[in-house]
Specification:
Blueprint: H1 2-14, H2 17-23, H3 29-57, H4 59-79, H5 84-116, H6 121-149, H7 155-176
Helix pairs in contact: 1-4, 1-5, 1-6, 1-7, 3-4, 3-5, 4-5, 4-7, 5-6
Amino acid sequence: MVTVLAYAGSFAAYTYIEPLLIERASISIGAVSGFMLGYGVAAAVGNVAGGRMTDGLGIAKANMLITSGISVVVLGIFWFCDSPTLMFGLVAALGFLSYAAVPALQARLLNLAERFVPHAHGVAAGLNIAGFNSGIALGSVIGGVTIRWFGISYVGLVAFVISGFAFLFLAFQERGKL
């Protein structure tokens, strides 16, 4: 559930980042590719950094930090969608955190599998990938519904609510040590 919600929040914003940049930040269509390059480079760095964070901080702390970071970044996208400069940093931060979550959430599910169903690492890895893909699809749908009902400006706010639920769900589980 945490993986689905974290990625739904992240991808509710990411899926509609191009129209948000064009409509609200007045970025030219040609310049959007620079923002997407920033996202991609940050995503690659984030994937490695997420693994290092998980190894260094531990699985629980890394996941708490990364999911809360996603929430803060998408809220920033809501607040600062009119600023091209801030949006470049926020789009890159979204790429970094979204892909830093991959190894952290993977490690979390592998750890849970080891505790509850030893030798089910393949199933746990598959569940993480399914959660990732489900979150992307759910985020895209929720972002589209948000645009239809409230407008493009509110995608970041809705993404914040969704990713905030991921953080709260994770915090609740960690408190109970599930």
